[in-house]
Amino acid sequence: MTALSMQHVAWLGLFGVLIWAIQTLYVSLRPGLRDLPGPWLARYTPLWRFMFVLGGKAPEGYRKLHAEYGQMVRTAPKVVDISDPSAISLIYAIGSKFMKSDFYCSFDVMYQGEFMSSMFTTRSPEEHKALKQPVAQKFSMTSIKTLEYLVDPCSEIFTATMKEMEGQVVDLGTWLQWYAFDVIGAITFSKRFGFMESRKDVQNVLSGIDLGLRLGGILGQIPMLNRFSLGSKTFRSVLCRLSLPDPIDIVTKMVSEAIKSYDAQTSTTDTRTDFLAYFRQQQKSTGKVMPDKEMMNHLTNNLLAGSDTTGISLRAVFYYLIRNTDIYRKLQKEIDDLNDAGKLSPVITYAESLQMDYLQLCLKEAMRMHPGVQYPLERVVPHGGTTISGHFLPEGTVVGVNPAVIHRDRQIFGQDADEFRPERWLCDEEKAKLMGRHLLTFGAGARTCIGKNISIMEMGKLVPQILRQFDLEWASDEPEWKVETFWFAKQTGLLVRFRERSRNP
Fold it and tell me: Rg (Cα) of the chain, in Å, rounded?
């Protein structure tokens, strides 16, 4: 290389650095953003936010940020996190023009060599509507209740195993995850995957999903990083050639095998009511063929999202009950009274769980204290910009409200918002509605989690089933559980002992 060409390269490099510096300075000083408080480094680079979530302690960090800087905190050059309750209806309302941000791209999965957006990940309202319309009825509570017969064997396996393990130290958090995944397999394919029966992570599915979520939650903080790594088909191809596993690939293979099995046994599948059967039977009745990609999309999404969210919520319920003896005993008495009155079935039904008023309060309060998602629910400010909390934000700004922050807002939930107190929901109707409007456990608006009824049914059935048959006691040497958050706030260390009760039906 000649001296002249080396000089050209040096000048080009210097020019590139200069352009980057000017652009960084422009964004940091952009009207509408420059006056917002936040960590000084965050206004210049998204690397601050990347490092902020890397340790898995984002929920505590976000609460501290808002305590220090207020309701509007700048956490990246174009990102503003918001804790103003009034922002929820503006950002997430049905019909809102705030679209999901590129953060969600990090959770797209590969199918036949192409990336596939789901109802959860798509940024397009039109695509979301097109995906949701054919399946919305199947996710209604009326429809989900028809699948109880597929859930009941999972409850029986769980309680039978806990009876067998009576007195031993049980990792309840792991067992609840296994239960949730076996349930989602049963209602999706009429087939449990066998986590509880084999007492292990079958084919390392759960560890693979966990790795995928961790990577997505971290890389999504800087969408460009995702585009050049897991969001790149070239990068995925290199991983495949190096025989490095795709953490989500095992799930798509399980779905493909389930579809092939169903199609090979059409003479015995007409009476099935699971999700796969519903989609296939709907094709017969309407004459409209659901494309393979769309079928894979819905069924894969069930598995990827359906077990983690429910497992997290179930852990939260049992954790807070065990740590609050008076609440535990009060709920157990409600269950016992209904059982003594002959109003409960051997496997408690969802309808029966709705008779348990205190149970419903405990479930709602546990999900307030520990929502499954504890990152900001990111959206993009639409064309023309908008004003939030008295601040004008330019179009393209990424904004979001974090359930982990808003659920602890003392103005909404009371001065004891950091405490587990189900009775807070026993208030006047207006106060209860106010608190309910600010629960983001399942998201909000048109993008509310479509599978929430599955989770609600599972919780309503399993919690009273266990408390009726067993007493649970804390068995860990540690005083508290441990939580790591990479999008989902996943708990470990929920070690307990089961003791069968003499009141067992």
Answer: 24
pLDDT digits (tens, 9 = 90+) for 83-104: 999 999 999 999 899 999 999 9
What CA–CA distance (Å, rounded) separates 182 from 155? Answer: 10
- What residue ranges define each of the domains in the chain, with the CATH number in brackets? 47-500 (1.10.630.10)
**Phi and psi at residue 231, in whole multiples of 5°?**
-90, 10
Rounded to 10 deg, the angle between the 249-264 and 275-286 helix axes is 50
Q: What is the pLDDT of residues 179-225, one digit of tens each?
A: 999 999 999 999 999 999 999 999 888 998 898 899 999 999 999 98
């939260």: which residue's tokens? Answer: 316
User: Six-digit token pair at 12?
Assistant: 């080009």
Distance CA 215, CA 2 (A): 44
Only one residue has tokens 């408390």, namely 467
- Highest mean pLDDT among 200-214, 224-238, 330-344 belongs to 330-344
CA distances in angstroms from 485 to 52, 311, 373, 375, listed in the order given: 11, 14, 8, 8
- Taking the C-alpha atoms of residue 306 and residue 137, their distance in angstroms, rounded to an integer, is 17
pLDDT at residue 244, as a whole number: 63
E-strand spans in 341-415? 377-380, 386-388, 391-393, 398-401
Higher pLDDT, 63 or 446: 63
Q: Phi, psi at residue 22, to the nearest 5°?
A: -65, -45
> Which of 258, 252, 248, 138 has its CA nearest to residue 191?
258
Residue in this structure with the two tokens 């031993």, named with its chain if needed: 168
